[in-house]
Amino acid sequence: MREKNGSFCDLSVFDRWKKRFRNMKLSGKMAFIYLIVAGISCGISMMGLQASFGIYDRKLYEKSLQELEFFTQNVNDDLEEIENLSYLLAMNGEVQEILREALETAYLSQEYYYTLMPIRKIFFDEVNIRPVVKNAIYVDRQNVKMPVGVDCGTVSDAAWEKLLSMCEQARGGYVVLPPSEEFPWQLSGRDILETKNATLTYLGTVIITSDIPGMIEKKKAELEYADSLLYVYSEDGMIYGSTEECPDLPAADERQGYKIAEYNGKRYFMSYLRAESNGWMYVNYVPYHEIFGQMAVLRYGMLGGLLLVFLLTLYGMVRISNIITSPLYHLTETMRLVEKGDFRGARDFLQVEDRSDEAGILTQEFRVMLEKIDSLIHENYEKQLLLKDTRYQMLQAQINPHFMSNTLNAVNWMIKAGKNQDAGKMVVELGNLMQAAVSTELSVTVEKEMEAAESYITIQQFRYKGRVKFAVEKRGDLGAYMVPCMILQPLIENAIHYGVEESLTACTICVSAVEEENGMILCVADGGPGMEEAVLEAVRNGTVKPRGHGIGLKNIRERLRMTYADSEFAIDSRPGAGTRVTIRIPGQSGRKDV
After folding, report:
1. Cβ atoms < 10 Å from Cβ of 124
2. Greater model confidence, 294 or 163
3. What is the CATH number of domain 75-292?
4. What is the DSSP string of 445-488?
5. Where do the H-state alpha helices sit in 271-355?
6. Fold of the domain built from segment(s) 381-586
7. Is the pTM of this model over 0.90?
8. CA–CA gap between residue 204 and residue 193 (Å, rounded)
9. 423-432: long-range contacts, CB 8 A cutoff, minimum separation 24
10. Sign, Cα dihedral of 485, 491, 497, 503
11. Exposed, middle or buried, 13 (CB in 10 Å: 0-12/13-18/19+)?
């Protein structure tokens, strides 16, 4: 005891605290780290935020965003005035009365134009008192125009047709085509629908041309910062810009905000706001020094201090985290080795440390568990291999007596019929089949399996003569795939039993082995009477009682499942359309080792 105490006392203060820290609980270690990091970060952040960002936020929103919002509202008031003008002209009772009288005259006649003349004075009086409105145009159903006011140039046919189509779809509602590079004026209007007697008969369309860029230019002088840059744009393009070269503008899905931007080598404070009424985006660039000149030194000083503290804190956290998470890292890597089945490597990799915290105890317990699991897995694995091999041998042996009985009966039938030459051929084919049946190999290539199937087909052709026709198809590299021995013969036998013997006419049986991109397809199909849906479902589920010895589909399905986990075994049948059995062998796992 004195030696232990003496050695402990001989350690330096740092070593003693280091040992105490290593033996602390993980929760205590993390709490200690978080306490230090949170205390330093919160203290410096609070001072910086109070001194710098408080001024920043107030200056930002009060001097820029609120002013931009006020400017936007003034522009929207003028836009609303234009909309009210279109409503006033379209709903004017005198205008509607004149248009009704014009409809009763001959279209495009002198009397028609004479009837429409009073509309000019009404339009002129309304347009003349609104400086932003350049002209008002009446358009009839044949697209004949009657303009009143200043000529603003020619509108493209596509834009004009688009505007008229929008008015027609709005059915009296107000529509707008914002200014564009092609036509720098705003086009807006609505259909004139007869309100008398509520018939809503179409009387024409009123189109208003407005100088929106000019209106914005006049209102820009009301902004506090005279040398600011203002840009207004919509989804169709730029409406107004202080300069021809357009700077970087906010994304289309943004609503409002601000940021510091670089433009033409100068720094600007950019604030932007999207109007809710028409979706236009208003962007104002204010020179940075006009807002932030006095607080720049303080701001960058605080940011530099925060960055320095952050780096130092990050460095300390990384170093301390490595001490805390080192045992957990080794445990994680050990678990990955266990997942791969490398229990010996996992035990060698696992650290052996004299630690009394949770990580040390967990490591010791995990080592004991690894040793027990490794022992149990090896013992159980050997038992499972023995059981699987025994079960496979029993399934393989199950088919041989069944096959021998059917084949010898066929040979006996030929000898009794006096067909010795044919019987001799059958004996030769029987020899080939016997060689395959008594083979000690549990799996053979698809090529050899097809040769055995062809021998069986030859025997059955002698037996059934004209009652059955066989078609054999082989395509692809059949020697590159392995299958359980004798899986095609029971399928052909079933096709004869349920297809040929149950049919009154000649039956065709097709046997194929075709290589595809993802594997090998084996198929046995007959043109027999087929099965009802209920019987087919019972066969698929294995609930139907088989005839004869009861050996066949269930046997094949079980052997395939034991050989290939991802193989497919499908049975399809329809009454009067025959039955098809399909086996799909995967490409990678089914490849023969060479």
Report:
1. 14
2. 163
3. 3.30.450.20
4. EHHHHHHHHHHHHHHHHHHHGGGEEEEEEEES-GGGBEEESS-H
5. 288-292, 296-339, 343-349
6. Heat Shock Protein 90 (3.30.565)
7. no
8. 7
9. 425/458, 425/462, 426/458, 426/459, 426/462, 429/455, 429/456, 429/458, 429/459, 430/455, 430/459
10. negative
11. exposed
